[in-house]
Specification:
The protein has 336 residues and is an alpha+beta fold. It has 5 helices and 17 strands. Strand 1 and strand 2 (22-33) form a beta hairpin.
Length: 336
């Protein structure tokens, strides 16, 4: 198996020199899961201390310059999702991971967990078989079936509200379910726009309008949870059970079928009696990539299992020169 150096052990020790002062190097490995990028940050970030990943996430949030510098242009781009490797307080976990993107901090990321698993394997950190990751919303089991194919056993997923109608400017009444799959989703069974790659801008506009309407009418997930993902569904042209379009925080679309969104969909199907435990649901993304999804029951709780493929596509070093006026990224307001 081809491996790369364990760069995590070099945290904070490697520097380059400029005329001004020493500059930390930020080491990363990039992969994509069904077309959706994951940048695994190996070293060079702030010291997050010890404790749960949720606690480490909050420490990272207070040093938001780091997220901006690795996710935003000129070092990143709007569709980039990051996975900052950190220490897990659970000895059973292969790693802890904080998920970030261009807009902020993600509670869980399904495609990202698949990308992390493939990356850890390429580094020689894990072998084939079952392992655990600690995320900010709990432990997630990953099963590396091949060097590129991974099944993730996600957090407990559920539907909090069924068939909610929201009045959306420029569209009218839109009906959808509110469900949790590691993030909060508003799931629209009948997409208001054709689910085709040439319709990306109308899809983005419709999803942004729906999200704005949810905020305007103070429609949330359980316990006031912000619904920050919008998911449209329709028939697949290639024989999958469904095609989707997922609008993510920050205004980009998910190139993959979205692991947490697929989990939310499975929870809705299970609640409606349309999918039985162990039965496979094939979810296709707007670009045609696929996840296989099923679930098991833990008492009455729905535990989705999402399987997809990821491929390492780059590794390198980011330089955050303190004399660079754009060292913390270029912040651009995403249109609504």
């Amino acid at each position: 198996m081809e491996t790369v150096p364990d760069l995590v052990g070099q945290l904070g020790r490697e520097r380059i020199m400029t005329d001004a002062e020493s500059v930390p190097l930020i080491h990363y490995i990039d992969s994509h899961t069904g077309g959706e990028p994951t940048r695994v940050i190996l070293s060079g970030g702030p010291d997050l201390g010890v404790g749960s990943v949720a606690e480490q996430l909050e420490r990272l949030r207070k040093q938001d310059w780091f997220r901006r510098s690795v996710m935003l242009e000129p070092r990143g781009w709007d569709a980039m999702v990051g996975a900052v490797l950190c220490q897990s307080q659970d000895p059973d976990c292969a790693a802890g991971v904080v998920f970030i993107n261009n807009a902020g901090y993600l509670k869980m990321c399904g495609h990202g967990a698949i990308g992390v698993a493939v990356t850890l394997h390429r580094m020689g950190r894990i072998g084939l078989g079952k392992h655990w990751l600690e995320t900010s919303v709990g432990k997630v089991q990953i099963e590396l079936q091949t060097p590129n194919r991974v099944a993730i056993e996600n957090v407990v997923s559920y539907r909090s509200h069924r068939q909610i109608t929201v009045q959306v400017d420029g569209i009218g009444d839109v009906v959808g379910d509110i469900a949790w799959g590691g993030n909060w989703f508003f799931l629209v069974q009948q997409s208001p726009v054709e689910l085709a790659i040439h319709q990306l801008e109308p899809l983005r506009d419709a999803a942004a309008r729906i999200r704005a309407a949810l905020e305007k009418h103070q429609i949330t997930g359980a316990n006031g949870g912000e619904i920050d993902h919008i998911e449209f569904f329709g028939p697949s042209p290639t024989g999958a059970d469904s095609r989707n379009y997922v609008y993510c925080p920050g205004g980009q679309y998910d190139r993959s079928p979205c692991g947490t969104g697929t989990s939310a969909k499975v929870a809705c199907l299970a609640a409606d009696g349309k999918l039985q435990p162990g039965q496979v649901w094939v979810q296709e993304s707007i670009i045609g990539s696929r996840f296989d999804a099923t679930y098991r029951l833990d008492g009455d709780a729905i535990i989705p299992i999402v399987t997809g493929e990821a491929f390492v596509c780059a590794q390198g070093t980011l330089i955050r020169d303190l004399t660079d006026p754009f060292r913390d990224g270029i912040s651009v307001q995403i249109g609504g």
